[in-house]
Recover the amino acids of this structure.
């Protein structure tokens, strides 16, 4: 079992927070919940955090078993996961606008806010890589810290959005996407390096 390391924990939290990207998703979240009252919006955001991060906790706990069951080597998952994250990052960088569908209060909470907007394939991939790279404790704590950070951001979403403005939110989303692309490339390179060592 790997020991908890502050630097590894910091890397894990930053990587996961960049993938989840609550700040960059603020315009989308507000667009989806625009027809809800303030109370209903807060309930939807609470449900989104609970749903998304419950799913991440499951993968933080049993992600290694998923790899073992399917006989997947970590380097293979790094390469595949890195490619997926790179695709997501490029999609965000090239996206110019987002047309929000109107959702009812029942639809807004768990899906699509919690899954897949907060926690999608990229976040699940990141958690499994953190688990295999740094251990269970780091994966678990990073999920909890990112969940708390995300809840705080969504709790104060209106003043944050007002302070950032539409341009500010877009700029943050693009910067996060560039950082995500760099992390994705690093995963791919580490996967290739692991494969070469196995040869």
């Amino acid at each position: 079992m790997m020991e908890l390391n502050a630097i590894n924990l910091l890397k894990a939290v930053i990587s996961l927070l960049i993938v989840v990207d609550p700040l960059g998703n603020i315009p989308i979240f507000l667009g989806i919940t625009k027809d809800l009252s303030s109370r209903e919006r807060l309930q939807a955001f609470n449900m989104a955090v609970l749903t998304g991060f419950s799913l991440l906790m499951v993968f933080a706990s049993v992600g290694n078993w998923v790899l073992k069951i399917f006989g997947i080597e970590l380097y293979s998952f790094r390469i595949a996961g890195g490619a997926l994250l790179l695709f997501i990052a490029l999609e965000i960088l090239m996206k110019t606008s987002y047309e929000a569908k109107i959702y009812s209060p029942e639809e807004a909470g768990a899906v699509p806010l919690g899954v897949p907007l907060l926690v999608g394939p990229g976040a699940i991939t990141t958690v499994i890589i953190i688990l295999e790279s740094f251990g269970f404790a780091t994966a678990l704590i990073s999920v909890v810290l990112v969940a708390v950070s995300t809840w705080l951001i969504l709790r104060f979403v209106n003043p944050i959005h007002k302070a950032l403005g539409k341009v500010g939110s877009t700029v943050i989303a693009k910067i996060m996407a560039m950082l995500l692309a760099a992390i994705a490339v690093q995963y791919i390179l580490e996967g290739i390096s692991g494969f070469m060592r196995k040869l």
